């Protein structure tokens, strides 16, 4: 079997087993736990914690079947040379990028808060991308890595739906990747933004991509043991 069909909106997503990867966006303590970047912007982090369990299930399916897995993290260098003033100085957060908070310096690589949540730490053989922006393609080697591995289709999850997930979906779409967003594996501090983002993705015949609940993907993968 070389291709699966996943029930999705706006129409079934045809998933080539040998050229599909899972991309998990920014499941980091800085966004999901109290004391990090997300909370410093005035957000309640609880809606993001709800996606940890479904993303864990998605990872389990990917690991069981051998799909390539990419984890992204939003991270800046300690000297902030990759953080434009326009990003650091935006708004009036309690703590700015680079300031010291209860989980170390906000959004700085290597700090405890910048790490992945305990449940979703990458394994050694999984690809980790540090990104300075919202989109996973900006300022990273992601496109080159995916092409090197023959990947044309992406299963996308993570946070936040309307910021880093949506930006990544649009970047991927423009580069020719077909993207399926797993609806219950993505979350926003503002649930209405999540709902509307999913609608935007699938509108106009899937102008950005496809969306489906995780259980539809799991049903499609029933009986698949190893994509290799
Ligand atoms: C944000 C993200 N919201 N991962 N980052 O700044 O969505």
From TrEMBL:
Top-rank taxon: Bacteria
Gene Ontology MF term list: hydrolase activity
Matches recorded under CDD domains: cysteine_hydrolases
Keyword Hydrolase: yes
One Pfam entry name: Isochorismatase
InterPro entries: Isochorismatase-like_dom (IPR000868), Isochorismatase-like_hydrls (IPR050272), Isochorismatase-like_sf (IPR036380)
Protein name: Nicotinamidase-related amidase
Organism (species): Aquisalimonas asiatica
């Amino acid at each position: 079997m070389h291709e699966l069909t996943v029930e999705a909106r706006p129409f079934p997503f045809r998933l080539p087993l040998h050229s599909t990867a899972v991309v998990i966006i920014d499941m980091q303590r800085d966004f999901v736990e109290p004391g990090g970047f997300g909370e410093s912007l005035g957000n309640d982090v609880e809606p993001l914690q709800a996606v940890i369990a479904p993303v864990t299930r998605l990872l389990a399916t990917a690991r069981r079947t051998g799909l390539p897995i990419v984890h992204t993290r939003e991270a800046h260098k300690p000297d902030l040379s990759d953080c434009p003033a326009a990003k650091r100085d935006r708004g009036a957060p309690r703590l700015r990028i680079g300031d010291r908070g209860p989980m170390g310096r906000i959004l700085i690589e290597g700090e405890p808060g910048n790490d992945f949540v305990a449940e979703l730490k990458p394994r050694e053989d999984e690809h980790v991308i540090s990104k300075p922006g919202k989109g996973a393609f900006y300022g990273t080697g992601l496109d080159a890595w995916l092409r090197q591995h023959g990947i044309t289709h992406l299963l996308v999850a993570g946070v936040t739906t309307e910021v880093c997930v949506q930006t990544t979906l649009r970047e991927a779409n423009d580069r020719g990747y077909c993207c399926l967003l797993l609806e219950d594996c993505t979350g926003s501090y503002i649930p209405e933004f999540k709902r509307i983002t999913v609608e935007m993705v699938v509108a106009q015949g899937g102008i950005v991509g496809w969306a489906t609940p995780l259980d539809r993907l799991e049903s499609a993968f029933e009986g698949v043991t190893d994509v290799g």
